Amino acid sequence: MLRYTKTAMLLHWLIALLIICAFTLGLTMVSIPGLSPTKLKYFSWHKWLGCTVFGLACLRLLWRLWHPAPPYPPTMGKLQQLAANMLHGLMYFLIFAVPLSGYFFSLSAGIPVVYLGIIPLPVFIDPNPEWKPILKLAHHTLNWILLGGFSLHVLAALKHQFIDRDNIFKRMLP
Amino acid sequence: MNIPHIPITMRAGAAMLLALCLASTASASPLKTDNTKSTIGATFKQLNVPVDAKFKKFAAQIDYDAAKPDASKASVDIDITSFDLGDPEYNQEILKKEWFNAAQFPKASFVSTGMKAGAAGSLSVSGKLTIKGKTIDVSFPLNIKKDGNSTVFDGSLPIKRLVFNIGDGEWRDTATVADDVVIKFHVVATP
């Protein structure tokens, strides 16, 4: 079984870990009522995580363009391969779209992002009360789609490992 | 009886003098602030992120005579409950006791105590700033420019929020919300 490159594996697992942290932190911070220093910190950390995911996603896409994924085993039917490719495509789209929607949501609320509290990131749009609820909804919706995609991705990996026993999961393990 | 004869030139002179007097009283009365064009806001940093907020309701009284700038007077009353951070929930939070305590101190105010003409089009303003029941002496430069019929006053006044106990308790930590706050104003007034 051919595997992904070490770089691709590192980026995959790092992005996965950061997304899980950002997602959990996102749910936690919005459940804090009112305003508190902890809430403000969580919001900033959440944004830093999201920006990191976006940066790593850019690197990952570039890497992927020059390093194609290892082929699927012949035991996988054409339809199954198509489904896998579509889900991977969706996940790729979301690792860009989720951070971007959050970034623009923050800008529309008049809060620019200062990465790690040190680097002010570009302000592409002025505060916009009309776009704010739309971008908020977009960020939330994309996240629920990401959760759905993530669940399918994990379930598929488990199915390949424990039901099909086709070792496909090993492609992503060092 | 003879009506005393006043030469026509003298009568015209008296009329002009009267007109001048009227004109000078008119310019000594306060300017009319155009609240649709004027803004008062505050900029601060939370976790190093600059945030702009504004006061939507305020009343500014400016008594300014370009010929006698040192005699100018200014006072501003700000409705604390009109503070807008861009989020209705946060706007409510900020009125609570540890922040502005708006229930007890619904207004902030500034009253000038002295003006000194500075470099072209600027005034050095001293006065008393009251926020959350605490009054301190402040001074700041004020830029003045004519724009058609109106006069535009621009300035910014850096303050320390903790001097006024704005953000008390757990909010005293300046690593979360910085102590430095800049009050910025842009007042457009017409005679």
Can you tell me about this structure?
The complex is a heterodimer of chains A (174) and B (191). Chain A is elongated. Chain A starts with 5 loop residues before the first helix and ends in a 10-residue tail after the last helix. Chain A has one domain (6-172). Chain A has helices at residues 6-31, 37-66, 78-108, 131-164, and strands spanning 114-115, 119-120. In chain A, a hairpin with a 3-residue loop joins strand 1 and strand 2 (119-120). With 174 residues, chain A is an all-alpha fold. Chain B is mainly beta and 191 residues long. Chain B has a single domain, classed as Lipid/polyisoprenoid-binding, YceI-like (Lipocalin). Chain B has helices at 8-28, 88-93; strands spanning 32-33, 39-46, 49-55, 58-63, 73-79, 83-84, 107-117, 122-131, 134-147, 150-160, 177-190. Chain A binds chain B through residues 34-37, 40-41, 44, 109-114, 117-118, 127, 129, and chain B through 46-52, 86-87, 89-90, 93-94, 170-171, 173, 176-177.
CATH topology of chain B: Lipocalin
**pLDDT averaged over residues of chain A:** 96
Number of strands of chain A: 2
**Approximate strand percentage of chain A:** under 5%
> Distance N terminus to C terminus of chain B?
47 Å
CATH homolog superfamily of chain B: Lipid/polyisoprenoid-binding, YceI-like
Helix content of chain B: 10-25%
What is the C-level CATH assignment of chain B? Mainly Beta
Primary descriptors:
heterodimer; A: mainly alpha; two-stranded antiparallel ribbon; 70% helix; 2% strand; B: 191 residues; Lipocalin; 11-stranded antiparallel sheet
Structure at a glance:
Chain A has 174 residues and is an all-alpha fold.
Strands, helices and their partners?
The complex is a heterodimer of chains A (174) and B (191).
Chain A: H1 6-31, H2 37-66, H3 78-108, E1 114-115, E2 119-120, H4 131-164
Antiparallel strand pairs in A: 1-2
Chain B: H1 8-28, E1 32-33, E2 39-46, E3 49-55, E4 58-63, E5 73-79, E6 83-84, H2 88-93, E7 107-117, E8 122-131, E9 134-147, E10 150-160, E11 177-190
Antiparallel strand pairs in B: 1-11, 2-3, 2-11, 3-6, 4-5, 5-7, 7-8, 8-9, 9-10, 10-11
